[in-house]
Specification:
Number of domains: 2
Largest sheet: 6 strands, mixed
CATH class of the largest domain: Alpha Beta
Shape: elongated
Mean pLDDT: 91
CATH superfamily of the largest domain: Ribosomal protein L4/L1
Order of helices and strands: EEHHEHEHEHEH
Structural class: alpha/beta
Strand content: 5-15%
Low-confidence stretches: none
Distance between the termini: 20 Å
Helix content: 25-40%
Radius of gyration: 27 Å
Number of helices: 6
Strand order of the largest sheet: 2-1-3-6-4-5
Length: 209
């Protein structure tokens, strides 16, 4: 598969030959699903917490005598049917994370990135060289690529100028290639990746079996 390489001004400066075997079938699709579900589950805080009947702070005194009042029997202010009482089967702190095999993650990443390549959503740039940490520079760089909508920028390493200049731009994610996940690849409309980062990512996903 061949794809144009552009410079930071949006001009074509060559071609990149990408050899990625895109997996087909239900296994690869299921791997993508499992990986994305696991990623989103791990982002859940899991800190919701309610108090049971035994945990609420109330008086141990019986609200009223057992008989003779005409009201229903009541034995505790902590009753779940009372305001301020305990909660029955309420949420408790829990860990939502799921374990996903490393090979499954690689397979999912290869499937997702390969499909984005086929769809023409990936732009390869020879070097993401932002000289100053200015929003104006990053916005101009994206405009020269002809990008509107959401975008994922993948540099080969952490780029402080790129990060500082792009953090005020809405719908822009900047993720170094060694931190890219299947969820990142699928989430945005377009992907801009440096040539060096493309080589790293290609080597990484080609290890999937």
């Amino acid at each position: 598969m061949k794809i144009d390489i552009k410079n930071i001004k949006g001009e074509s400066v060559g071609e990149a030959d990408i050899s990625i075997e895109i997996p087909e079938g239900d296994t690869a699709a299921h791997a993508v699903h499992e990986t994305v579900v696991a990623y989103r589950a791990a982002a859940r805080s899991g800190t919701a917490c309610t108090k049971t009947v035994g945990e609420v702070s109330v008086s141990n005194r019986k609200p009223w005598r057992q008989k003779g009042t005409g009201r229903a029997r009541a034995g505790s202010y902590a009753s779940p049917i009372w305001r301020g009482g305990g909660v029955v089967f309420g949420p408790k702190p829990r860990d939502y994370s799921k374990k996903v095999n490393k090979k499954v993650k690689r397979l999912a990443l290869r499937k997702a990135f390969g499909e984005r390549l086929l769809a023409g959503d990936v732009i390869v740039i020879d070097s993401i060289d932002i000289q100053q940490p200015k929003t104006r520079e990053v916005a101009g760089f994206l405009a020269s690529m002809g990008i509107d909508g959401t975008v994922l920028v993948i540099p080969e390493a952490v780029n402080q100028n790129l990060y500082l200049g792009g953090r005020n731009i809405p719908h822009l994610d900047i993720v170094p290639v060694d931190q890219v996940t299947t969820y990142n690849i699928l989430r945005q409309d377009r992907i801009v990746i440096s040539q060096a980062a493309l080589d790293i990512l290609t080597n990484r996903i080609s290890q999937a079996s």
